UniProtKB/TrEMBL annotation:
InterPro entries for this protein: AAA_16, DCAF12, DUF4062, P-loop_NTPase, TPR-like_helical_dom_sf, TPR_NPHP3, TPR_rpt
Entry keyword set: Repeat, TPR repeat
Pfam family for this entry, one: TPR_10
Spans of repeat TPR: 861-894, 1029-1062
Entry keyword Repeat: yes
Residues of the Nephrocystin-3 TPR-repeats region domain: 571-764
Protein name: Tetratricopeptide repeat protein
Any one of the GO CC terms: Cul4-RING E3 ubiquitin ligase complex
Domain DUF4062: 19-75
Family matches, as SUPFAM superfamilies: P-loop containing nucleoside triphosphate hydrolases, TPR-like
Orc1-like AAA ATPase domain ranges (all copies): 223-358
Statement: the UniProt record of this protein carries the keyword Repeat: yes
Length: 1090
């Protein structure tokens, strides 16, 4: 049957695999005699292996029969152990392995009837093809005839498909493909393909099943979980040493609970059991999707990581409300929090809120010592420690487990096993039992038991197991154990079985024969976990043992990773290869190859869709975060001209690239890509499509970021018009665009136009999501900012406080959105001189952000800057400086050396250092900030104007007035060009220029500038604004110099009145105003008033 097997392997299985994948099913074909010699296929252990594989391959089976009866195993193959496990083998000596496989796989298993297929080759095909095609002898011929007769009879009785006399291997391949496609269609109809929610639930249930096979109940633990599930308090934390059975406890308790309380809604999530189960964002997304389905909620679930994190507590609250309405329990079980990927410092658990878990919403978590356990301990949640097995529990577990395989220990052996201290750990005990049932023949059982109990701990025991694997499973391929397990260790997520077979293939074959790998895979069993088709270590003990045994040098690790990188690089671009390849290349330090890998446009789209921050981290590591945009632009042009790319694919890639460059502040590279994306969306989707509106909004955002506000506005308005026509006036995306336009109008000093848009957006969100949704809080913050910038602080404050109250109630007190609200409110309090209220809020916001995102995140850098500004304003420079420097260090590490955020940090440092009379340092930072902003934002951006002003202030402070003036004039010109002549920033710059002119003896030239600044601030911010008070004071000072005392004094008094009203009588600005009045009277000779 070599020709048939080869044809099936080369042609039929690949077609079937694709057919299965369309139905979200994975095909694993097993032919233990493909690709190996006859000598290899007739070993004594082959029979056991064949029977094991048939069991694991159910429910499908195909049998091919020609004229040969096949290998008959000798007496040594029917060992006492095998007969004990498979009692049906008694009386079947002298039967071929083929016949025994058919008996075990089909004829003795009635449930297999509908999924089994037999094919008999035409006897005429064998004639003239040599004796290898003919019966071995007359006895074998008779047995083959009898076997076929029995198969015919069973097929007729059980309606099993039988194809007789297929003419040649090619016809067989066609028949097998036709039959199996029909069987797969019947069991997995295309119309019933499970969605990703069902697939996730299925995968986690499959893992749970592996933990339920043999379980000895722990009554105290079961009772503790029952009490928690029926109670109303905080979440329960399961604790215990590694291998103590926490996962098994949860899996078995959940199965029991579902049987007893079928109306309860239970979601189990075993972190580490599937390929993406350790990603905290995907975990939240899965729970939200499950809750949405159960509650039948009509709201669309969040999509982006930021939205998922923001809305997760809201969906938890919905689950609790639904459970309370139905009178049931909603139970979420999260196993092994310690195995979370630490992206965004997920193990700190800031993403997991505490507040919603009460009443009918119950949370069970388990963890090992580490960051997750520390975070849980800080919350004060109650815990239950799973204690080691008692001696009696060990006895019962060992006896029950071995009985599954027809094995048992005598009482002496059982007592010795149960009495060993190490077997108090369930994992240690199970490893020993697995080894005994495989290697502990009756004759050697005592010696093997002594050996394994002598290990003393799990690492030593696993080293013994690996040694045994090398002895038993490397007959066909030397080094198989170390190579296979070493490659799994070296991979980021593990390896698929097909990848392992391909990587270990002999030179003359496309893959390692399954017969060479299957015995090792069967022996390892639960030591390897199948996570959505990817095999990885079932526990860290096994991983560590493999590393210590096979990967004990850096050179060995590099060799394994290089082998994997070469293989993944040779494969098509998929989510799988794109996840592994760049990670491997980074680990190898293969910088050139990593660069080329990231520049592949198809791979870039996959990487950016999955995790933009990881993609950026690769470029920062390469040192090309500021130059990658040009490389991507050039590569995209070449890629987009290839004939194979559909216009929509090109538009998608352009959107991803422009978004990535925009986020990285590579605006020059992002702009042509965004324009291309707009053009292609219009061409492929139409000018009135929502995709076109999105592209237009993205383009407008870029123009706004680069200071081209007049160009951005019509694009935003067109995007809004499209959504109003296509999605209706109440669409949430429309609310977002309205809010964006309001922000742009506010930036161009058109608050009167911005406010109705902001209020309309708020009303739309409240109407759609209710008045207590976090998205309402975000919109309230935007409206409050508008009030604040138009000097309506009394109206802004309650909006900020309402936003804070909403987020604390919906999201919990430690959510990043709460930090945003605290920061906004604190900044408002600063403006009203309430420093003692503002500072604790600012510090609390900082604590939340650091706990949520870790010590190196751009959001933390922003919060450090905000606290630094507060400390600087209260003259605590020594406290502010380390905060500014830490912010700078964070942004440089996470965004690269030339990002606008880095320029912001440098500017803050420069201003503070100037106030601390360290002008040389200040100037160095200010010039670097200017260079960064001009490079990133262009010479006409308002941030560049800020930089020129700061540099001018430094020159002025160091007596270089002639050098300062052109800098300050240039800043004024940029502000006027970008923001318009009536913007408060223009007023501030006019005041700065007037101050400089005053210092150079040109008070007369300064006066009209100061009067214009005052007029702008009074019109835009109000006649009693803080800016107006400062302008009045400065103008009065000028008039004093010009000897116009009568005009100056009322201005001083007006400034004093505003400052006393707004800042309080003890504020330094009040003292400044009073001193101005005193100085005026002294100069005017009016000593009576002094």
């Amino acid at each position: 049957m070599v020709e048939e097997r080869d044809l099936l392997m080369r042609e039929t299985w690949p077609q079937l695999r694709q057919h299965c994948r369309e139905r979200q099913v994975e095909l694993v074909e097993v032919d233990l005699r493909w690709g190996i010699s006859e000598e290899q296929s007739t070993r004594r252990e082959t029979l056991r292996l064949c029977l094991d594989e048939i069991r694991s391959c159910r429910p499908f089976f195909i049998g091919l029969l020609g004229e040969r009866y096949g290998w008959v195993p000798g007496e040594d193959a029917l060992t006492a152990d095998l007969r004990e496990e498979q009692p049906w083998l008694e009386g079947l000596r002298g039967r071929s392995v083929t016949e025994l496989e058919i008996l075990h796989g089909v004829l003795n298993a009635p449930e297999m009837a509908r999924r089994s297929f037999f094919y008999f080759r035409d006897p005429g095909y064998a004639r003239g093809r040599g004796r290898d095609f003919l019966p071995e002898n007359s006895v074998s011929a008779g047995r083959q005839t009898a076997l076929k007769a029995r198969i015919r009879q069973s097929c007729a009785e059980k309606a099993i498909p039988l194809h007789e006399d297929y003419p040649d291997p090619r016809r067989l391949a066609a028949l097998v493909l036709e039959d199996l496609e029909a069987a797969i269609d019947a069991q997995f109809p295309l119309a019933d393909v499970p969605d990703w929610i069902d697939r996730q639930a299925r995968d986690h249930e499959a893992f749970a099943m592996t933990r339920r096979r043999t379980y000895i109940g722990r009554p105290d633990a079961i009772e503790a979980l029952d009490r928690h599930a029926d109670g109303h308090g905080d979440p329960l934390v399961l604790m215990g040493e590694p291998g103590c059975g926490k996962s098994a406890l949860l899996a078995n308790w959940i199965a029991r609970r579902r049987g007893e309380r079928p109306d309860d809604f239970i979601v189990q999530h075993y972190i580490g059991s599937t390929a993406d189960s350790s990603d905290h964002v995907r975990l939240m997304s899965r729970l939200i999707a499950e809750i949405k389905r159960w509650t039948e909620d009509s709201e669309e679930p969040p999509r982006s990581p930021e939205e998922i994190r923001r809305d997760f507590p809201v969906w938890l609250t919905k689950a609790r409300s639904q459970a309370e309405r139905r009178g049931v329990r909603c139970i979420l079980a999260l196993d092994a929090l310690n195995q979370l990927d630490d992206a965004d410092h997920a193990s700190r658990l800031a993403w997991l809120p505490a507040r919603p878990f009460a009443g009918a919403l119950r949370l069970l978590v388990s963890t090992l010592p580490g960051a997750a356990q520390d975070a849980l301990r800080k919350r004060g949640w109650p815990s239950f420690r799973l204690e080691p097995l008692t001696t009696e529990e060990r006895r019962r577990l060992a006896a029950a487990y071995l009985a599954r395989f027809g094995k048992r220990l005598d009482l002496t052996q059982l007592d010795r096993l149960a009495g060993a201290p190490a077997t108090a750990n369930p994992l240690y005990l199970k490893i020993v039992l697995d080894e005994l049932r495989v290697t502990g023949t009756h004759e050697r059982l005592d010696r093997r038991l002594n050996d394994y109990l002598g290990a003393g701990d799990i690492p030593a025991l696993l080293r013994m197991v690996l040694s045994r694997y090398r002895h038993d499973y490397e007959h066909d391929r030397r080094g198989l154990v170390g190579d296979a397990l070493g490659l799994i260790w070296a991979a980021r997520r593990g390896l698929a079985e097909a990848e392992i077979l391909r990587l270990l293939r002999p030179s003359q074959l496309p893959q390692l024969p399954h017969a060479s790998w299957a015995p090792l895979r069967a022996a390892i069993e639960e030591g390897l976990v199948d996570r959505s088709g990817i095999l990885n270590f079932g526990h860290d003990f096994f991983r560590d043992a493999v590393e210590a045994t096979f990967v004990n040098t850096g050179r060995a690790a590099r060799k394994l990773r290089a082998r994997l990188a070469d293989d993944f690089a040779a494969r098509p671009v998929t989510a799988r290869t794109s996840d592994e390849l760049p990670w491997l290349l980074q680990k190898l330090g293969a910088r050139g190859r990593l660069r080329e890998c990231l520049l592949e446009i198809d791979r870039f789209v996959v990487l950016h869709s999955r995790d933009p921050r990881e993609l950026m981290a690769y470029w920062i590591d390469l040192g090309e975060s500021r130059t990658m945009g040009r490389s991507y632009a050039a590569r995209f042009e070449d890629w987009s001209r290839e004939w194979r790319h559909e216009p929509q694919s090109v538009a998608t890639a352009a959107n991803h690239l422009s978004s990535f460059c925009y986020t990285a502040a590579l605006y020059d590279e992002a702009e042509p890509l965004m324009r291309r994306a707009v053009q292609m969306e219009e061409e492929t989707q139409g000018p009135d499509h929502s995709g076109t509106a999105t592209a237009l909004n993205n383009m407008a955002s870029l123009l706004q970021a680069t200071g081209r506000l007049t160009e951005a506005e019509p694009l935003m308005r067109r995007a809004i018009a499209i959504l109003e026509r296509t999605s209706g006036a109440g669409h949430l995306e429309l609310a977002t665009l309205l809010s964006n336009l309001a922000g742009l109008l506010q930036e161009t000093n058109r608050a009167a136009e911005a406010e109705p848009l902001a209020r309309r957006a708020l009303a739309m969100i409240e109407g759609h999501r209710g008045s207590d949704h976090p998205s309402v809080a975000a919109q309230l913050g935007g409206l409050a900012l508008l009030m604040k910038t138009t000097n309506r602080l009394a109206q802004a404050e309650p909006l900020y406080r309402r936003a804070l109250a909403i987020d604390e109630s919906a999201l919990g007190s430690d959510h990043p959105d709460v930090a945003r609200d605290l920061n906004n409110l604190a900044q408002l309090l600063q403006e009203t001189n309430r420093w003692t209220e503002a500072e604790p809020m600012m510090r609390r916001a900082l604590t939340i952000i650091e706990a949520s995102f870790g010590p190196i995140h751009p959001m933390l850098a922003t919060q450090l800057n905000n606290l630094g500004l507060l400390l600087r304003a209260t003259n605590r420079m020594a406290e502010a400086e380390p905060l500014y420097r830490r912010a700078l260090s964070i942004d440089e590490a996470s965004l690269g050396q030339e990002h606008p955020h880095v320029a912001r940090d440098l500017n803050n440092l420069a201003v503070m250092l100037l106030a601390m009379e360290r002008p040389a340092e200040a100037e160095r930072f200010a010039r670097r900030a200017l260079a960064i902003d001009e490079k990133c934002l262009g010479s006409d951006h308002p941030d560049v104007a800020r930089d020129w002003n700061n540099l001018g202030q430094i020159c002025q402070a160091t007596g270089r007035l002639a050098e300062a003036e052109p800098h300050i004039r240039r800043a004024l010109a940029v502000f006027e060009k970008g923001l318009g002549p009536e913007h408060p920033k223009v007023a501030a710059q006019l005041s700065n220029l007037a101050t400089l002119l005053h210092a150079t003896g040109r008070a007369a030239d300064a006066e009209p500038l100061m009067r214009r600044a005052l007029a702008i601030d009074e019109r835009r911010l109000g006649v009693v604004s803080q800016a107006a008070a400062t302008d009045l004071y400065n103008l009065a000072q000028l008039l004093v110099v010009l000897q116009r005392f009568a005009e100056a004094e009322p201005l001083f008094h007006r400034a004093l009145g505003i400052d006393e009203e707004r800042l309080g009588e003890e504020h330094p600005d009040v003292a400044r105003d009073l001193y101005g009045i005193v100085q005026l009277r002294l100069i005017a000779g009016r000593l009576d008033g002094v």
